[in-house]
Amino acid sequence: MKILVIGSGGREHAIVRRLAQDSPAPALHAAPGNPGIAALATCHDVALGDLDGLVALAGDLAPDLVVIGPEAPLVAGLGDALREKGHAVFGPSAAAARLEGSKSWAKEVMASAGVPTARSVTIRDAEELPSGLEITNPLGDVPYVVKADGLAAGKGVVVTSDRAAALAHGEACLAEGGSVVLEEYLDGPEVSLFCVCDGTRAVPLAPAQDFKRALDGDEGPNTGGMGAYSPLPWAPEGLADEVVRTVAEPTLADLARRGAPFSGLLYCGLALTSRGMRVVEFNARFGDPETQVVLERLASPLGELLGAAARGDLSAVPAPTWSDDAAVAVIVASAGYPASSRTGDPISGIEAAEADGAHVIHAGTALDADGRLVSAGGRVLAVVGRGADLATAREVASAAADAVVLEGSHHRTDIARDAAEGSLSATVEGAAS
Q1: What's the mean pLDDT in 408-428?
Q2: Residue 358 per-residue DSSP state
Q3: How far apart, in whole angstroms, are the C-alpha atoms of residue 233 and residue 210?
Q4: Cα 350 from Cα 69, distance rounded (Å)
């Protein structure tokens, strides 16, 4: 089997790494890839924005499956262009990828499908922002939640108790064009659940939790994600089945009615509130860094699962199976992230980081003119630890993150701590048990 993976980040490295463990191992190709991916797959220097070039590459390689990792090429229609050429593609059409490309349209779909979500309003004029906040925060309750309507690489959301800051972020989003979505704040812990979809069916993967704030204690600005862990010992029993029944399947049915069937990875970002489960957001691809821990625990083949979805028949393969082990990922970020990302700094210590059982996923790395590994983005590496329980996995990941040498870098030290110590819980009305 030959598989082409589109992308260059940590998510794609994790996907390639897990595909390489399938038996028999597929022949793996990636475009454009990164230095970590290059150790496992043949990389092709075709930019993510070059849709014609990516289609031409697929034509030359004739892969059995194309897996599209990032959101931007999905929203731009790469999946459609590849399918028109007869390729089996894991990734939704541009029409279905609007679930991520437009938060306001995703809210429309949720309302039509009866999916529980936060109260919201879409704003297109800065003068409407104050009245919009009165709708979503009617009693002056805080925090405020302000989201850029379009793609923002996970960093277009501000959650703040400062009304002036909320208005300023909304104005900044509107100044860049488009619209902004204001939402009520959802209390309770958040859960990421990936569902592999074939247009009509949804197969859940293992739930995970990620950490968006830059600093320990959930302080600092929002980021694309500073770490993640799986499993969630505190989550209600039967949560995944409930999400499939009340969220994924109604959404798939609504999209099919709209003539935009969803085939690919439906990311359900959830809040387990005191009033019940609510959808925070949908994404149209694997989340990062949750992919790193979810795929670390996957015990069954990944290639055949994604291939069955791409061919439109998930009933043809067994349900995924999972290791009882826990996995924890810690992101090593570059100096200045997320406000800025210093690049070109040498990276060392990876061998030391992996010496005690961790593995290192490349997210924002490159090779310089002298062949040295250097930073090339904000989130540079994901260090993944595995163990019999979350406490052990945390120890492995934390020690490995400390071993990485990158000038000015930073990482959180509290990823999965509360869950490992048993101090996190969720009481959700109507949750399966």
Answers
A1: 89
A2: -
A3: 14
A4: 24
Spatial contact of 103 and 269, defined as CB atoms under 8 Å apart: no
Domain 190-421 superfamily per CATH: ATP-grasp fold, B domain (3.30.470.20)
Q: Is the dihedral of CA 110, 114, 118, 124 positive or negative?
A: positive
- Is the distance from CB of 102 to CB of 40 less than 8 angstroms? no
Compute the CA torsion angle 67, 72, 77, 81 (nearest 10 deg).
Answer: -40
Helix (H, G, I), strand (E, B) or coil at 41: coil
Classify domain 121-183 at the CATH topology level: Dna Ligase; domain 1 (3.30.1490)
Report d(CA 182, CA 118) in Å as an integer. 10
Proportion of the chain in helix, strand, coil states, percent, rounded to 5: 35, 25, 40
What per-residue confidence (pLDDT) applies to 152? Answer: 63
Residue 323 in 3-state DSSP?
coil
Q: For 308-349, how does the pLDDT look when each residue is reduced to its tens digit (9 = 90+)?
A: 999 999 999 999 999 999 999 999 999 999 999 999 999 999
CA distance 67 to 70: 10
Distance (Å, whole) CA 182 – CA 137: 9
Quick one: which of 116, 189, 193 has its CA closest to 427? Answer: 189
Other C-beta atoms lying within 10 Å of the C-beta of residue 121: 19
Residue with tokens 């488009």: 178
Domain boundaries, the chain: 2-91, 121-183, 190-421
Cα separation values, 205 from 115, 291, 300, Å:
20, 10, 11
d(CA 214, CA 212): 6
Query: For residue range 22-53, what is the model confidence (pLDDT) as tens digits?
Result: 999 999 999 999 999 999 999 999 999 999 99
Backbone angles phi, psi at 219, to 5 degrees: -105, 165
Residue 294, pLDDT > 60, answer yes
Asked whether the beta carbons of 153 and 223 are under 8 A apart, the reply is no
Please state whether the predicted TM-score (pTM) of the whole model is above 0.85. yes
* Residue carrying structure tokens 């070059």: 50
- Reply yes or no on domain 2-91 having CATH 3.40.50.20: yes
CB 145 within 8 Å of CB 157: yes
CA distance 154 to 224: 5
Structure tokens at 100: 């991520």
- The torsion angles phi and psi of 268, rounded to 5 degrees, stand at -105, 105
Q: Which residues contact 338 (CB under 8 A, 6 or more apart)?
A: 155, 214, 221, 222, 223, 224, 378
